[in-house]
Design a protein that fits this description.
Layout lengths: L1 H15 L9 E2 L1 E7 L2 E2 L3 E7 L6 E5 L4 E3 L1 E2 L3 E2 L1 E2 L1 E8 L27 H4 L1 E5 L4 E2 L2 E3 L1
């Protein structure tokens, strides 16, 4: 009986700490990317939280739309302010490293692919977010 009474504080403590968190809370983030008023038909977008935390990434589809995913955690992004970078290059199928043909030019100015130069930011709120980027 005494050994069973020793377990009472242990199980009581378990009730106070129901378990470890599975990581930060993620919320849905989707949107579209346009450049000079036209949809950007391919590329990638990355949200980097200003206060730390995991990055969220998404592919830009033919319709210019994206949905963010946080690697190893699931769909969405962490809540808060983010710096954003967008990379949009045309495919160069069959191009090998030793190929001397020039690469196709980027679909958007290269500055948008650098967090420190893009000037792009986004605020992810505790709700389903639709965040569009109209690049100039």
């Amino acid at each position: 009986m005494a050994s069973k009474l020793c377990l009472v504080p242990f199980f009581s403590a378990l009730l106070l700490f129901p378990g470890c968190s599975q990581g930060p809370k993620l919320v849905s983030v989707e949107g579209a990317v346009t450049y000079q008023g036209k949809l950007v038909p391919m590329g990638s977008i990355v949200f980097v939280p200003s206060n730390g935390g995991p990055n969220a990434e998404g592919n830009i589809g033919k319709d210019g739309k994206f949905h963010l995913l946080t690697r190893d955690l699931g769909p969405g992004a962490v809540i808060g302010e983010h710096k954003v970078m967008i990379i949009a290059l045309e495919d160069s199928p069959g191009l090998l490293p030793e190929d001397t043909r020039p690469l196709k030019p980027p679909l958007i100015p290269i500055k948008y692919s650098d967090l420190n130069q893009s000037g792009l930011t986004a605020k992810v709120e505790d709700k389903a977010n639709v965040i569009n980027f109209d690049l100039k």
